[in-house]
Amino acid sequence: MATTLATAAEPVVHAARLENVSKSYTTPGGQQLVLDGISLDVAPGEFVTLLGASGCGKSTLLNLVAGLDRPTSGSLTTDGRPALMFQEHALFPWLTAGKNIELALKLGGVPKPQRRARAEELLELVRLKGAYGKRVHELSGGMRQRVALARALAQESKLLLMDEPFAALDAITRDVLHDELTRIWQETGVSVLFVTHNVREAVRLAQRVVLLSSRPGRVAREWTVDIPQPRRIEDAPVAELSREITEVLRGEIRRHGQH
Length: 259
Description:
The chain is α/β, with parallel strands linked by helices. It folds into two domains: 2-82 and 159-257, P-loop containing nucleotide triphosphate hydrolases (Rossmann fold), CATH 3.40.50.300; 89-156, no CATH class. It contains seven helices and ten strands. The strands form two sheets. The chain has a six-stranded mixed beta sheet, sandwiched between helices. Helix 2 runs parallel beside helix 4 (141-153) and helix 3 (112-125) packs across helix 4. The chain is globular and about 55 Å long. The protein starts with a strand and ends with a helix. The mean pLDDT is 90.
């Protein structure tokens, strides 16, 4: 078992690499295998969506890559320390939008005199210019997730891990944030590993879609998404590939249900 960060002396050929990674937990009934032999590379600047039915181990895998947990077996390497964004914004309500971002900058070692200007730059990047002094309760759900994204970007990580960050938003807000995330990914060159159970969201965003089988999670299949950006959820090529992936996903769910 190994979880390591790539050093500056090593040639960087991946943002994250998982080699035969498995994860199990001890339960009253014995060992429960959640992930089984996962091998996955995320290239520098690549956008990968991780797709699967609820309970297949997507979030567990993301936690392993984030360093919040360790594999039971296998090896895992990342290019530096990843930044993590959750479904819930997890902003501190007693701080303003800007101060939430400044806290991440402080933890990242940015000198105090530089923090406000950098926080305002990040707010402008996520299209929230002028929101520095807004309290969390003054922001809509979509705006809160934009601040959470800015805070994640403040960590200057080369890999952004996103655990269903738009799942709680209405369809229109979610669609707008898909556009914003695509733009920010293209502008910054950050690598993204994005967890979702929404097939169309996976195809809308990613360069590559990785499907996990039902528990224990294994890589069941991968698709390269050659549809040019910008994409829309309703675009015919997105819908067509989504139907194909959905059929494979249904097969995985049926197969799991037969055991």
